Amino acid sequence: MLGRRALFALGAGTAAAAINRTAFARSDDQLDTAWINARVWTGAGPDTRTDAIGVKGDRIAAIGADAVRARTGKRTRMIDLQGAFVTPGFIDPHVHFVMASTMLTQASLRDAANQKAFVEKIADAAKALPKGQWLEGGNWDQDRWGGEMPHRNWIDAVTPDTPVAVIRYDLHMLFLNSLALRLAGIDRNTVSPPGGVIEKDADGEPTGIIKDSAKELVLRAIGERTPAQIDATVAKGIEVALSKGVTQVHPTELETISFDSTRRLRARGETGLRFRHYLPLKDWEDQARLIAREGRGDDWVQWGGCKVVFDGSLGSRTAKFYEPYLDDPTTRGIIVTDPADLRRWIEGADKAGLQVTAHAIGDEANDIVLDTLAAVAKANGPRDRRFRVEHVQHMKPHAIPRFKAQDVIASVQPYHAIDDGRWAVRRIGEKRLETSFAFGSLVRSGAHVCMGSDWPVAPIDPFAGLDAAVNRETLDGKHPEGWHPEQRVTLAQALRCHTREGAYAGFNDAKMGLIAPGHLADFAVMDQDLFAIESHLLTRTSVLRTIVGGVQRFG
To answer: For 135, which DSSP code?
Structure first.
């Protein structure tokens, strides 16, 4: 076993004098743990590095071999990282945690490349279920087989006793078989609800495609799981997130299932993974009353933010644009939330001191949301409100500088660019794509830009996000030089957006997102220096350890 002298010599990269016990720090000033012999990117600047991290309690107390050595005592635990690369813990500011965790054990249709494979996978999954149990999961993508939408007739014969409700990977569209439609009470006479679509064929019968707010008809029929089942599922999701170096997530939800579960888990102890919840904006008054009674949580489970969905998605042709879709000129998308409600709810929530974030994907949707945020900020007066817009996928050129000018955070998901980039041109054409997924323009404008996954729409894998932001090579491999390469960002910029900007987006920048004294001891240890490899190798990175609150939670 290496002694302290040898370990610190490794950490500093130079010979070190022997440390005798009389030189140890006072017992009340001693570090609990010294992580040494590391290559640490602190996040304080593009090239800011150090070689050791000292932890006391749940906080970073010292960085750098000399500072760590000065506070090493007899009871300090020494951990030699043997030259491994370290970054601040990744913060994912957009996840659907319970849904994603649940789908870890459900049928996956993501790699179904044609109708035959799609039907076979559903048939196999149905055979594995008890009669009458709902078949959920999904992540299917009709663009993998040319764009034809599935029809209930595809699967009725192989699922006669199994209600099927499988979700498209963008989470905006469900596909049902005939049994599921009956159980949900959906037939030819059912009218599409506001903000939703029930697709019907030429005969006026439901095809099985249910979009946006119409999904609630189906979810009510499926029913709810028990709290114990949900909590067990969340625990599995926590393990997955930690294995990827993620130390905090922001569930941005339209329900309270993730919030309720993590509150229950927190009552039993530390959750291991940190959570900052965004609850339904329409219920902002309930959250304001909760905060008046209980505060805003702690460093493990926080709340104080609201989420609203304003439009749909590009893949479902429900994102709201100024011009019609090229592959369906009958529609420009839909508005999910009435603009009058949007203004009223945001103004009330903001006046109550709550943070607000709004889902906006189409160019018209982004303009309406930005206009609303500007009007509310003017009406309620100056304060550190940190408004956010989720996705920010498609904009007119004039919208890009508005994020900096209005001090609105762009919460984006780089993986969507390399995924949608396979087929987006068919939906809206090249011209509108010139300012789509405009990560580079947003970052260079000086706006706050945080990057996440939208798990389960995309994998909860920061390295996939980094690769997408830096390289922008679409998943079909047809853009090796980058899809709209002018929107690429540097690795340092992408890392900042996955760490420090995520902390800022959740009002946690004073204690998360950096490796610095006084910050929470949240960091990820990986098997290769991200700055020392070719950028297309980013996705081959493995996390060796994930430390949250000074405790190794993975590895």
So the answer is: B
Distances (CA, A) of 310 to 37, 327, 352, 467: 49, 22, 21, 29
Chain-centroid distance, C-alpha 179: 33
Based on the number of CB atoms within 10 Å of its own CB, is 191 exposed (0-12), middle (13-18) or buried (19 or more)?
Answer: exposed
Mark the ranges of the chain whose per-residue pLDDT is less than 70. Answer: 1-27
Q: Give the strand order in the sheet containing 53-56.
A: 59-63, 53-56, 33-36, 77-80
- Contact in structure between 81 and 212 (CB atoms under 8 Å): no
In 3-state terms, what secondary structure has residue 82?
coil
pLDDT for position 6 = 40
E strands within 213-321?
246-251, 274-280, 301-309
CB environment 265-274: b (16+ within 10 A), e (fewer): beeeebbbbb
Query: Which residue spans within 76-136 are E strands per DSSP?
Result: 77-80, 85-88, 90-95, 107-108
For 464, what's the count of Cα atoms within 13 Å in the CB-facing half-sphere? 20
Q: Which residue has the tokens 């950028």?
A: 535
DSSP state of 257: H
Q: Is the dihedral of CA 320, 325, 329, 330 positive or negative?
A: negative
Cis peptide before 456 (omega within 30 of 0): yes
Model's pTM, two decimal places? 0.88
Label each residue of 231-249 as H, E or C: HHHHHHHHHHHHHCCEEEE
Answer for the pair 209, 201: CB distance below 8 angstroms, yes or no.
Answer: no
Residue 26 has what pLDDT?
64
Residues linked to residue 54 through DSSP beta bridges, in sequence order = 34, 62
Q: Rounded to whole angstroms, how far apart are CA atoms 315 and 432?
A: 15
Q: What is the C-alpha separation between 425 and 270, in angstroms, rounded? A: 46
Taking every pair of Cα atoms in the chain, the longest distance, rounded to a whole number of angstroms, is 88
C-beta of residue 232 within 8 angstroms of C-beta of residue 268: no
> What per-residue confidence (pLDDT) applies to 10?
41
Cβ distance 441 to 487 under 8 Å?
Answer: yes
Q: Collect all residues with Cβ–Cβ distance below 8 Å to 403 and sequence separation of at least 6.
A: 370, 389, 392, 409, 410, 442, 445, 447, 448, 449
Find the length of the chain.
Answer: 555
The set of long-range contacts for 126-130, using a CB threshold of 8 Å and a minimum separation of 24, is 126/158, 126/159, 126/162, 126/164, 129/162
Residue of 391, 305, 290, 320 whose CA lies nearest to 353: 305
Closest listed residue to residue 524, CA positions, set 501, 498, 490:
498
| AA identity, residue 67 | A
pLDDT digits (tens, 9 = 90+) for 107-157: 889 889 999 999 999 999 999 999 999 999 888 999 889 889 999 999 999
Distance (Å, rounded) from C-alpha 512 to C-alpha 505?
11
Count CA atoms within 13 Å of residue 66 on its CB side. Answer: 1
